[in-house]
Amino acid sequence: MFELLGVPPQVLMGQLLIGLINGSFYAVLSLGLAVIFGLLNIINFAHGAQYMMGAFVAWMLLNYTGIGYWPALILAPIVVGAIGIALERTMISRLYKLDHLYGLLLTFGLALIIQGLFRNYYGVSGLPYAIPPALQGGQNLGFMFLPNYRGWVIVASVIVCFSTWFMIERTRLGAYLRAATENPELVGAFGINVPRMITLTYGFGVGLAAFAGVLAAPIYSVNPNMGADLIIVVFAVVVIGGMGSIMGAILTGFGLGVIEGLTRVFYPEGSAVVIFVIMAIVLMIKPEGLFGNNA
Amino acid sequence: MLRKFALSTVAASALLATPALATDITLGVLNDQSGVYADLSGKGSVIAAQMAVADFDAAGKGINVNIISADHQNKPDIASNIARQWYDQDGVDAILDVPTSSTALAVADVTAEFKKVFINSGAATSDLTRGNCQPTTIHWTYDTAALANGTGKAVTEAGGDTWFFLTADYAFGHALERDTKAVVEANGGQVLGAVAHPFPGTDFSSFLLQAQASGAKVIGLANAGADTVNSIKQAAEFGIVQAGQKLAGLLLFINNVHSLGTQTAQGLQMTTAFYWDMNDDTRAFSERFRAEAGAPPSMVQAGVYAGTLHYLKAVEAVGSDDAEAIVAKMKEMETDDPLFGKGYIRKDGRVIHDMYLMEVKTPDESENDWDLLKLVATIPGEEAFLPMEDGGCAFALAN
C-alpha cells in the first residue's frame, strides 16, 4: 500500500469525501450568489444571513409548529425566499441603476441587522436540531464511516445545483432570464414582465441560501453567526469561479471544498487561508475567474 | 465597531456619603458581546458586575461606581486599543472579564503599563500567572492548569492513557494542550499527536478523522465554546464514540452543555469553578441573575461577580483608587463570597479556590432545562492549580 507524505490512503480517501461534503455547501451557496449577481448585478452580502435564516426557520418550524425536517427542506426556502422578495421589492430594486457598491453596502447592512436581531433573541450558543430519523446512522465504507446524513448532503446539493444550471442554461425560462439581463427594454417589449422575473430570481437565489441552511442545521450549530463565518469563503469561491458563472460557481465550490479538506491533513494551520491564497493567485493570472467570460 | 456605553451609574447620594470619603471608581467590562463567547460572558458579565456593586452597597459606603462595557470581538488588537483608551482617556480603574486568552494577555500588558487593575475571569490560559504574569493581574475563575488537573487527570486515571488533541490554533488552545499533556504524562499516560484547527471553526470532521486514525483512546478537545459543541456533535455523527474512543471536553461551559442537550452530552465529564445548583447561596444568586439575564450564570459570569465584590472590599479598606494599594490589599485579604466560598490570592495573582469535576446528567436524571450537571469530585484549590514555584512568574518568585 502506498502512502502519500506519511498519510495512509484510507485517511486520504476519507478526507477527500469530507472535502466534497463541505464543498457541497460552498457550491449551493456560491450558486445562489452567482445567480443573483449574474442576472441582477447585485452583490448579495446578505447571503450568509439568509443561509442562517434558513436554518433558524427549520428550527422554528420544528419547535413552534412541530413540522419536521423534510417539509422544512421545502418550506424554509419558500419562507426565506418570500422575505428576500419583500426586501428586493422595497429596497434592493431601487439600486439597479447605481454602482455595484450601493447594493453591496445595502445588503451588508441588512445582514448585520438580521444577525443582530437573531443574536438578541437566541444568543450565540446555538440551538439543537436533530438529524431526521431516516438519515441517522451511517455506512462503513471500509476506509471511513460515512454518516448517512452527510451522504444525503452531497446527493441533495448535486441535484439542486445541476437542476438550477439546467433551468438557467437549457430551458426557455432561463433563456428569457438571460435575455432580460442583456437587454431588459427589448425583452419587455416582447410582453414579458421583466421586473417580476428579476424579483422572482432574487427570491430563488435567496431560497438556495435557505436550502443550504436547512441542510446545515442538523450537523452544524444553529446560531446567528453561522452565516457570517461562511460568507467570506463563499465570496472567495465565487470570485475564483468567475462572478456570475453558474457552472463556475458549482465546480469551484466542490473543488475548493476538496482542496481545503486536503490542506487540513497536510497543513491544518493553513486550512483557514488556503482558499484566499488560491483566490489571490487566480486573480493575478486570470482576473475574470476560472470560468468567467471576458466581459 | 466600538460599542461603548455607560450601562449603570450607581450614584452615591451626596446627602448620605461624607464628601471627604467619596471615591470614584470606573469599572470596564471588556468581553465578547457578539461572537462565540458572548453567551458565557457578554452582557451577563455586565449584569454580574452590576449585581456585585448593588450587593456591596457601594453607594452607601461612599464609593461611586460607574460601569462601562465594550465588545473586543475576540481580537487582541481591538482589546488592547480599547483598554488603552479606557485607561488613558476614560478614567477606568479596573478592567473585568476579558475572555479569549490572546486578548487577555494583551490587556494584561496594557494594564501593567498604565499601573491599573486587571481582574480576569473569562480567559483560560495559565500564562496569565506564569511567564506572562503581571503585578497588576488577578486571575479569578479558572485556568488551563486547573482544567488539566480536573478532567485530564480523571480521564487518564480511568484508563484513558493514550491521547490525541484537537487544539484551537491560538494562545488558549496551545496552553490547554501543554498543561493537559503535562498532567497526562505525569499520570503515566502518553500523547500520540495533535492537530491545530482554525479558530473559530465550523467543520471538524477532517480533524476528528485524523484523531480517529491515531488510534488514541482519548480525543482531548482543547477548544471552547461553539468549537467544542460542534466537535462533540460531529464526533457523535461520525460514530467515533461508538467505535470505542472517548471524548474529553477539556473546557465546557454550562451554556455549551445546554446547547448540546443531555441526549448528546450525557456522561461527559467537565471541570468547572462554579455551578448554579451547588448550595443555597449559589441557587439564590443564580435565581436573581437569571431574572435579568435569561439564563443561569456561567462560571465566567460568577467570577466577574466575585472578583468585583473582592475588588470593592479592597477599595473600601484602602479608601482611595490607588491601584497598587488596592491590588496589595486584594492579595492580603482572604477572598470570601457566596459563589466561590473562602479562598485567597497568591502573590502571582492566581486566585485559589476549589474546583469541581462534574458529569453531565442523563436525560432521565435532568429535571429541567438547566438541570444539567452532577458533582463527581471536589478538587481542593491547592491541588487544582499549578504551584507558584512551578509557574515561573518572575516577580512573584523574586521576593
Automatic annotation (TrEMBL), chain A:
The chain crosses the membrane at residues 12-35, 42-62, 68-87, 99-118, 149-168, 200-220, 232-259, 266-285. GO terms for biological process: amino acid transport. It holds the Pfam family BPD_transp_2. It comes from the Bacteria. It is found in: Cell membrane. Keywords: Amino-acid transport, Cell membrane, Membrane, Transmembrane, Transmembrane helix, Transport. GO terms for cellular component: plasma membrane. The keyword DNA repair does not apply. PANTHER family: ABC TRANSPORTER ATP-BINDING PROTEIN, BRANCHED-CHAIN AMINO ACID TRANSPORT SYSTEM PERMEASE PROTEIN LIVH. Belongs to the binding-protein-dependent transport system permease family. LivHM subfamily. This is Branched-chain amino acid ABC transporter permease. It comes from Primorskyibacter flagellatus.
